[in-house]
UniProtKB/TrEMBL annotation:
InterPro entries: Kinase-like_dom_sf (IPR011009), Prot_kinase_dom (IPR000719), Protein_kinase_ATP_BS (IPR017441)
Protein kinase domain location: 313-656
CDD domains registered for this protein in UniProt: UDM1_RNF168 (cd22265)
Name used for this protein in its record: Protein kinase domain-containing protein
Molecular function GO labels: ATP binding; protein kinase activity
Residues forming coiled coils: 80-166
Alphabetized SUPFAM superfamilies for the sequence: Protein kinase-like (PK-like)
Keyword Coiled coil appears in the UniProt entry: yes
Keywords recorded for this protein, A-Z: Coiled coil
């Protein structure tokens, strides 16, 4: 209880109430009493707060959305966190809206495709029903046609039955007539019997077919790997006796049919042993050797397909031909493995006897086996894979000999038939000619080899990468090689001495090849101007002075007799010339109006030791490209001094 005071005054800060007591003054809710002064004053709030007059409390100031209060300044500033949150929500709403729109579009597309599918199914169902009706209709038509044909067949059978009965009746009548005639012609029958017995005796003399068939069966039996025993394969006594004789001949020769389809060098060694045989190589021995060659069996369905032991081979297109046969592209494979085929070249010889055939095979194998592993990247002699033969009525000898070799693409004449060949075609040809000269040089050094029939048809090629060709030499029927005893071999049955009839000429083959190419119709018709200029450059300095000496046939027939050596066509000279032309940059120029000519049109003028440049077609060409002011006499004098056409053209052409 406050103490009562009698006076009307109270201490500072207090007032007198109704009960005459001194108490503190009551202030408003928004005011605060100062006890020292006793006065009420307005309550103070913080800078970021406002005073609520009703409640008397300090309330924090409210800011707008996306703003917050800065307690230091009491100002509203942007709320970055709220702004980011708002942007995030807006993005989510936008994405959700787009997703719903995409779903609506996808739903519309799905409904459209569903309608399209239903429509297509209806169309397909209609088409199926239409085809079903068409099929039923066709079946009805076919059934009608079948019934018609059946009726026609029954009708034809009835007609045939009637005809057969008529023939039987007619035959019975003729039999009666024959019986009457037989009685009248007894003497004639006796004469016929005598003639028949004579024919039978003649056939007995020609009973070699059975032996020949036994020989064929015996060779086929030896080639097979899983062949049965001899007693099972040949059952009769005659066959077994014939087989024993054949086996004795095979053992005497030391050659088996498998040798002809295996390594050719192994076969060559066996043939070399037989060449040392003391007796003569007569026809009987050649025939026995010929009997050892395995026989190929022609396929009954495909005429170009043959079977040889466990392998098969088939002829393709012709890639070259000669007087004795032709060369074809072909393929070979093991029996039952037709997917794994190997490309080969097949040489078929039909106009050749066994002696000539063995000569060619021996010389080719001698050269191939002697040069094996020494080819490098140049020209080669084709490897022989197998040798066989088969019966043919078209051949004069009754047999066609077949040589399976490594694959080839064409002969030398095909190289000139490329009208649209690239600019580097002449370089490929030059490289091929150089490779042939290098190979001939190797063969001449080792064997003193001469081909003696070396024309473009006996040069084959194979395409290799880089627009180049690998050259091959074939057809060794007229070739000669020197044996170890210093004698020349060109037939198995004979060797002739060096002194009398034959002289080794290393320039013969290349001279014949180059002149045969330059004289050929294919070269004059199809060859490019660069090739013609190339041959002029090779021939300008080494052509003969006599017109007859430049004739290919004369050189081939009489060169062995006249013993002419032409050093200009020596392999070393041709190698140097081709290397020089390959390195010559001026050869890229174009040639126009080059006259087609033969090399034997060059003549030797009377009393002059060099050929006359004015009479040559090469001179006419040079006259066309001469600049004005040059005289023909200067040209003749210059050509006489310098036979290299390229150096000459380089000097007389205008600058630039």
């Amino acid at each position: 209880m406050p103490r009562l005071i009698n006076t009307t005054k109270c201490p500072d800060g207090k007032i007198l109430n109704n009960k005459l007591c001194c108490v503190y003054r009551k202030c408003e809710k928004n005011q605060v009493l100062n006890k020292t002064t006793g006065k009420c004053k307005t309550r103070k709030c913080k800078i970021y707060q406002n005073l609520d007059n009703k409640t008397g409390k300090c309330v924090t100031k409210k800011c707008k959305k996306l703003q917050k209060m800065n307690k230091k300044t009491g100002l509203c500033i942007p709320d970055k966190k709220a702004i980011k949150e708002k942007e995030k929500k807006e993005k989510e709403k936008l994405i959700e809206k787009e997703r719903k729109e995409q779903e609506k579009i996808a739903e519309k597309e799905r409904k459209r495709l569903e309608k399209e599918r239903i429509k297509q199914e209806k169309i397909a169902e209609k088409e199926r029903k239409r085809l079903e009706k068409e099929r039923i209709k066709q079946e009805k038509i076919a059934e009608k046609e079948r019934k018609r044909l059946e009726k026609e067949r029954i009708k034809q059978e009835k007609i045939a039955e009637k005809e057969r009965k008529k023939r039987i009746i007619k035959k019975k009548k003729t039999v009666k007539k024959i019986k009457v005639k037989k009685l009248k012609k007894i003497k004639v029958k006796k004469l016929k019997k005598i003639k028949i017995t004579k024919k039978k005796s003649l056939t007995k003399k020609k009973s070699l077919t059975k032996k020949q068939s036994t020989l064929s069966r015996f060779k086929d039996w030896m080639i097979k790997v899983d062949s049965p025993s001899l007693s099972v394969a040949f059952k009769t006594k005659k066959e077994i006796t014939n087989v024993m004789k054949i086996q004795h001949d095979f053992n005497a020769l030391g050659i088996k049919p498998n040798d002809w389809i295996n390594d050719p060098c192994y076969l060559l060694n066996n043939l070399k042993k037989k060449l040392k045989y003391k007796g003569k190589w007569n026809n009987t021995l050649i025939k026995k050797l010929d009997n050892t060659i395995p026989e190929a069996v022609r396929d009954s369905n495909v005429m170009s397909k043959f079977r040889l032991g466990g392998d098969e081979f088939q002829f393709g297109s012709e890639i070259g031909s000669g007087s004795f046969g032709a060369i074809y592209s072909g393929k070979t494979w093991q029996k039952g493995k037709s997917l794994n085929k190997t490309n080969i070249a097949i040489k078929s010889l039909h106009e050749i006897n066994p002696l000539e055939f063995f000569t060619e095979v021996m010389i080719q194998n001698e050269l191939f086996c002697g040069m094996r592993g020494q080819w490098g990247n140049g020209a080669r002699i084709p490897k022989i894979y197998f040798i066989t033969k088969y019966r043919s009525s078209r051949s004069t000898t009754g047999w066609k000999y077949i040589i399976g070799m490594e694959p080839l693409d064409g002969d030398g004449g095909d190289l000139f038939k490329k009208k649209k060949a690239s600019g580097g075609h002449y370089k490929s040809f030059l490289k091929g000619l150089r490779d042939l000269a290098i190979l001939l040089k190797k063969l001449q050094t080792k064997f003193k080899f001469m081909h003696r029939d070396f024309h473009a048809g006996n040069v084959m090629y194979k395409k290799i990468p880089g627009n180049n060709y690998r050259m091959y030499i074939i057809d060794f029927g007229m070739s000669t090689i020197e044996t170890s005893k210093g004698k020349w071999l060109n037939r198995i049955t004979q060797t002739f001495h060096y002194k009398k009839n034959f002289r080794f000429n290393p320039s013969h083959d290349l001279r014949m090849l180059i002149l045969s190419i330059f004289s050929s119709t294919n070269f004059r018709t199809y060859a490019q101007a660069e090739l013609k200029l190339l041959f002029c450059s090779i021939l300008i300095g080494i052509l003969r002075y006599n017109r007859m000496d430049n004739d290919v046939l004369f050189w081939n027939s009489y060169s062995d007799m006249i013993h002419v050596n032409d050093e200009g066509f020596h392999p070393d000279n041709i190698i140097n010339r081709t290397n020089g032309l390959l390195n010559d940059k001026l050869f890229s120029m174009k040639i126009y109006n080059f006259k087609k000519t033969k090399p034997d049109e060059y003549e030797r003028p009377g009393g002059v030791s060099k050929y006359n440049a004015k009479n040559s077609d090469l001179f006419n060409y040079i006259d066309q490209i001469l600049p004005t002011g040059q005289t023909l006499g200067y040209v003749e004098q210059h050509v006489a001094k310098n036979s290299d056409l390229f150096n000459y053209i380089d000097q007389i052409l205008p600058t630039g």
